[in-house]
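Anyone have tokens for DUF3106 domain-containing protein? Sequence:
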Amino acid sequence: MSVGLALGLCAFQARAQPQPSAAVPAASAASRATPVRAPGASVARQAVKPSTRPLWSELTEAQRQALAPLSAKWDGVSEAQKRKWIAMSQNFPKMPPAEQAKLHSRMTEWVALSPQQRTQARLNFGKTQEISADDKKAKWEAYQALPPEEKRKLAAGAASSAKPPTTAAAVKPVPAEKLAKVPQPKPVSRPPRIAAGANQVDQNTLLPQPAAGAAN
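Reply: yep, here.
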């Protein structure tokens, strides 16, 4: 084979080899790109309230039984409110069934309230706590001792006092004979003034002259 033919074959093979693809750098650049996070993900993460202690998993079995209606919202409840619920339910095993049901009913109602309604409920509960338990019991027993007719009267009176008056009461005129008479002041009698004579006045000073007896 001649030298020229060998060189021509080498050049032909060099042109026939495929060129490297340009898509490889693009793919590597895409792999280095930072993934874009959804804008709502950070907002949703910030909206989650931090859990307060003690967590539901940290409560005892007796506490979980007493606070069962609060289990779904317990970890998001404030620490102060948790202490109050724990204190209120610490004697739960010794309570009568009626008292246990009443306490669980209050917890269920409290969980369904909004934060504003919970604040108002806490204020109302504080006002009722100002009355002693003995006073509450005495008033309740006195009310239960009333006959049904008196209970209906009290309920009707409370309902009527709660309603504001629709119109102002008309002012009735008072008869003239019922009006109190104001006493008229008596005229004050004053002594008559004594007129000074012409010979009793000094013509130069226009002052009264002393009497003749006083001069002596």
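The CA atoms of residues 38 and 111 lie 32 Å apart.
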